[in-house]
Amino acid sequence: GEDVEQSLFLSVREGDSSVINCTYTDSSSTYLYWYKQEPGAGLQLLTYIFSNMDMKQDQRLTVLLNKKDKHLSLRIADTQTGDSAIYFCAEKSGAGSYQLTFGKGTKLSVIP
Amino acid sequence: NAGVTQTPKFQVLKTGQSMTLQCAQDMNHEYMSWYRQDPGMGLRLIHYSVGAGITDQGEVPNGYNVSRSTTEDFPLRLLSAAPSQTSVYFCASSKNPLPSVTDTQYFGPGTRLTVL
Fold first, then answer.
1. What is the layout of strands, in order, in the sheet containing B64-66?
2. Which among A31, A43, A82, A92 is least surrounded, fewest beta carbons within 10 Å?
């Protein structure tokens, strides 16, 4: 079945850029998503990218997709303490269902 | 708009007990879903619904029932609770099945369930 892998932890200094990486196995993935989860809260959709795109930029967020290597990354520019959270990568396969497969999440800690 | 509401926030059950987790949304969203989140794991889809009267199984449906008699409500029933069902449960809703930033998916605050 589909699998989505992420590194579990990332620590950066305030003001630096953060890069969170994700790999997936389903070559028929059509949509790839990044969600943010703050402590004690549900998930918040941050951004997404279609599989026919290489890059998408939205203010401080840049998503890069390497479809050949099945690698997705989320870059957060000028990381702030409010960016501290768990970030989940998720994919929607092209299999005709509405299910998303989520990674285990990367906990981003921002050091003031 | 209250968004997506879930009750209760916390619940402790004994093995074998049954209960219903409530989920409601006031945004007239057609698509609703239930996920569970276990420590160190991503969310896994339990059941989903694309509209009133229509439900379908997700990745981990065993031990759970759902119904969708109205657009607003999507309760999740645990038939006979087991310790393996200890988890945080999230309900989500969206206008369309595939979320986008302009048609985002809204999550409730979660229900933390412990089964002893």
1. B4-7, B19-25, B76-78, B64-66
2. A82
Whole-angstrom distance, CA of residue B57 vs CA of residue B64: 10
Selected for mutation to probe chain A from B5, B35, B43 (highest A CB count within 10 Å) is B43
Report pLDDT digits (tens) over B66-114.
999 999 999 999 999 999 999 999 999 988 877 766 677 888 989 999 9
| Contacting residues of B for A4, CB less than 8 Å apart | 42
- Cα A89 from chain centre: 4
User: How far is it, in rounded angstroms, from Cα A21 to Cα A34?
Assistant: 11
Q: Is B105 at the interface with chain A, CB within 8 A? A: yes
Nearest Cα residue to B32 out of B113, B102, B107: B107
